[in-house]
Amino acid sequence: MKILFITSAHNSMSQRFYVELTDRKYEVDIHITSTIDAMIQAIEVSKPDLIICPFLKTAIPEEIWKKYVCIIVHPGIKGDRGPSSIDWAIMGQEREWGVTLLQADQEMDAGDIWSTNNYSMREVSKSTLYRHEATHAAVKGLLDLLEKFKAYQKEEYFPEPLDYNHSNVKGTLLPSMKQSDRSIHWLSDNSETIARKIRAADSNPGVLDTIFGEEYYLFGCHVDDRIVGNSGEILGYRDDAVCVGTIDGSIWISHVKKKGGIKLPASLALSHLLRNVPEFPITPFDDIEGRTYREIYYKEKNQVGYLHFDFYNGAMHTSHCKKLQQAIKEAKTKNSKVLVLMGGHDFWSNGIHLNTIEYAENQGDESWENINAIDDMILEILNTPDKIVMTAMQGNAGAGGVILGLTGDFIFAREGVVLNPHYKKMGNLYGSEYWTYLLPKRLGKELAFEITETCPALSTLKAKEIGLIDDYFTGNVQDFNEKIQKVAEYWASSSLYDEIIANKQAERERDEKEKPLAEYRHEELEQMKINFYGEDKSYHIARKKFVYKIACDQPSVLLNDKITISNN
Asked: Which of 354, 507, 366, 342 is nearest to 438 (CA)?
């Protein structure tokens, strides 16, 4: 079966669909939509049996949906319609929500229903629900759809028309949520209400608010149980976030964006307002009771140390990398026998922080500082001779973030995570993070360089097949973490522990004699200097387009995600 994706962006949902289908040997083309003419051209080139729209902000024109079955993936329960589905569900404190796959028709979101799956809501952000529960429900719907479509082709199945008279149709048409619906009332809204409003707007469009007379969109909210102060007033800062008082406590806001600007760490964007504001520092090793905001924290149990680094969208700026390096260095001094690198629950890591680089006065210099800081941090992990290091990828990973994961002696991922172990799409960026050592060590030189050139998105199934990871576990994040704990404690108490450590040390010594890590780093950074400071500005152009959400010029049908990977 030939399938064409028409999507506004090749986002987490689209990539997950792609790997699920290609793992099952479906032929998939991807078209990043721009105009109706471009859509029609993409269809003429692809000649699909079925069109799927994983993430679409524009309507499919009549000349397409009348000729082809076009499936819209709508992030709402049966009968729900409108562009702000999850936003309203969070604001309305719905206990259950869902994803519906429906056929494009004359009326938006009102076409025949092919599949629908519901899930229980959690008090998390819209983006977290979308990446976890909604995507999981959508994949179930996708696989259901494909079986039904095969029957449909034989005239053995027909989709269900939307009928609001049916008792199982509980959704309704809701308008696009406006900023007036999201507005924070600092003198009457409590912490939970404010948090709910910000969560419902994350990661787009944010909640518009005024800070010392300047308008900013607010993102990334964390309730604090201990700090109190005047409602609406900035009480302090920590790492990327600022702490703002509420009528019953305080909340942390981690990111803000000016109109027409880019999303930035709040403490960076608002630094001019924080001169007389105190810092509320905590270390990754402090034992904190109650809710608060912290990006890096360490827990230890049964001779296993768990190092969490939960950075917004998985992006790691220079300060992140330096703080994480120090945390790793201290964690190495603990009595634990196994160190587990946990990353974050939404993203494991996506490497260097393109937004803070774009914001810097000199983007080349900040790029250089950031890449050297992440290299220093990775080197700290590689120089851990007396502990087993485990990687536990709870969320998606990309570019240098995947390479960071390869520092583990054992590498595990949660099923459904999508990995993009390459750099080239960011303006032909060469990449560092010791990838020329770590990636071939896992995959062999030929496959490692094939992947970096062809830039595929990899499922956990494919990643395990080729040896990029050791294994993957099914279930949600909580299930995954419980399984990781069992594995880590097994290795900590294993009779093979001393043998593993001895083999690890011997292998590192052999590798260093063959080619020192410093040489790999030097060679990579020489290429990165060309990217950062050379005459070719492709990296700087691609980075600007990425952070400002400027659509890149795309061919009608993107075939550059395709890769043939042997299992040898």
From this structure: 507
